[in-house]
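Methods — Computational structure assignment.
A single polypeptide chain was analysed. Its primary sequence is given first, followed by the predicted tertiary structure written as structure tokens.
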Amino acid sequence: MSELDRFSNDKNEVPKIPDVLPLLPVRDIILYPAMVLPLAIGREKSIKALEESMSTDRLVFIVTQKNIQIEDPTPNDVYNIGTVCEVLQILKMPDGTLKALVEGISRAQWTDFKLSDKGYIEVGLKIFDEKTVKMPEVEAIMRRVIALFEQYVKLSSRIPIEISVSVSNITDPARLADTIASHLAIKNNDKQIVLELVDPVKRLEKIIQILNAEIEILNIERRIQNRVRTQIEKTQKEYYLTEQMKAIQKELKQKDDAQKDVDDLKSKLKKTKMPQVAKSAADKEISRLEKMMPMSPEATVIRTYLEWIFDLPWEKSTPDNLDLKRAKEILDQDHYGLEKVKDRVLEYLAVLSRVQKIKGTILCFIGPPGVGKTSIAKSVARSLGRNFVRISMGGVKDEAEIRGHRRTYIGSMPGKIIQSMKKAGSNNPVFILDEIDKIGSDWRGDPSSALLEVLDPEQNYAFNDHYLDVDFDLSNVMFITTANTLNNIPVTLLDRLELIRFSSYTDAEKRHIAEDFIVLKQLKEHGLKPEEFIFDDGALDAVIKNYTHEAGVRNLTREIANLCRKVAKELEFDKKLKSITIKPENLNEYLGIAYYERERIAENDIGVATGLAWTEVGGETLTIEVNKMGGKSSLVLTGKLGDVMKESAQAALTYVRSSSQKLEIDENMFSNTDFHVHVPEGAVPKDGPSAGIALATALASVCMNKPIKKKIAMTGEVTLRGRVLGIGGLKEKVLAAYREGIMVVLFPESNKKDLVDIPEDVRKKLQMIPVSHMDEVISLTIERLPENKNIKMNKKNGENGI
């Protein structure tokens, strides 16, 4: 018997159904009475339930799971109402699973849920009586349901028209509702609601509600489809008419504005000098543009792309001024000192004058803020006669900022490199990438990796921007990068850079810079004449020492600008005043109380040593304090110290304990004494191994109960055996010591090679003593010790015991 024949059978007789049946939970299927369905059975309990059914009356109770993911459903995981079914046929598969053909017989509700002795779930059943008295009202509802279903079938392409004919022959209300519900493309939750409605009339009313909603949705879908088809036909018609119009205009030799734009682009392409690859790409885009509707969005994207192609300086360059004397004059005129940078630029010019073309140079200026890294790059461009462009890399986190966005994205554009080349107007500018140590990275990519191609002379001759998608030659560009520290620059990127270090300025250098550059510039910016604003002797030195504390001259510039504003205000208030002289005595009237105290070095006290540190903003002096008290031989470290510095303190204490006999320290002290090491300015993080000998000296001083000499600073890493190892940043550290009025600096012997970088005037005023072991350090720093005959402090300036 076919499924249609079963639907048209009006018999509503329910065979004798036992009170207990095996349970067969199914997933994602709602089975109605009189409905025949094939099932694939794979779960062990379900297979046993089917086998039990086949061995008895071939009846099984099928109910739908609420969650299809659950493998072993409990009473809470299945619906209460399901369908008693007859197993018509069963087929065993090779993999052990079963295929069964079942037919729904009657609605039922399970009342008892338990696991049988044979391993399947069995349930008690409550069978529903679905008989309905035929009344005119019921007949009217059935007719309405059949009419709506016929309308639904006509609108839906999923149901054969024969189903509609078969349904119209059903006379039983319950069978009619179940048959229509089984063919509706609705959610399983809605199908379950229909299954749980025992009253056939209520079930038919629910079917009417669902059919009305579904017909409304199908009508909307049809309207949308018709609208889209009409729009497509309209577009095709417009395209056809446009093509006809073009043909007519061609015959009449008339051209519209869009065609004129295309002709202009073709003419521009012929005139623009660019590589053949770029020319082919532009020609291809012009051909595409010619075939498009002028007002289409894609046409706008192509026009923008072509504008970028034409505006780039593919083969346009500025001639280099190879006059070395003129270049040196410009560099000296703009900046005081910085001899290494100036020499490097002059070397570049000298080589260029001989070979005409050299590979692109990538310099990296490393140094603290305010020492002139960015400003001298502008002077380099001026001395070479090249254009200058700059982009700030601080905070850049998106790789597309460098390489550009692909044209598939709305609002896409080239990266900063190509944008800056267009801005420069030549293919050989001086290009500065500022603050490359501040580059970030996130889920959008790593910009520093994109820079690897840009800053590699072996690759950047064919830099490929994602937006242009053609190679652009960057090999003629002179790249200059700047950074405050090397710590955050990836090793692979650092390998491509030629490092030139900028050190802190001495007070004398700052005075020269202020006199020759800053004061004159600030007078001009504030509308003051040189005779109206006069610095008395010592006034500039007082500003530098008492109102600034920096490696560069930025704060000094601000303070001089502050003075200019105050002077301008006084001169405007009192027209009789012709000039104002700034003296050290009246400086606080203009700038207020001094910001900085210069006496930051440790006094000659027990357990207080002066170390030297290097930071991103230059060198600093570091006071290290040690105290001892009764305890259990513990070491307390405070002052926001990093792990490396804590380890240095441990190593220093170990050295002092191991040298207790040599230093005449009571060995029992270490077993009943606690030591507290503190580095003031506790809010500032401190780390690194170079404070090792200062820590060891302060610990030795407090253990020996003898003071450390005044105005001695030291730097160097200490080992457990007392050896003094080399450190970095010696120049900045020595300049910090000089700035703070220190007279003697102890430094590792392995750093003697770095003395050449220290300005000569500083070397003459400081006593620089190289040390290789802590025994030397303690002999030189702790008072009232017998003098070590092998270690002598050379008093002659300039020789410094080296």
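Note: The mean pLDDT is 81.
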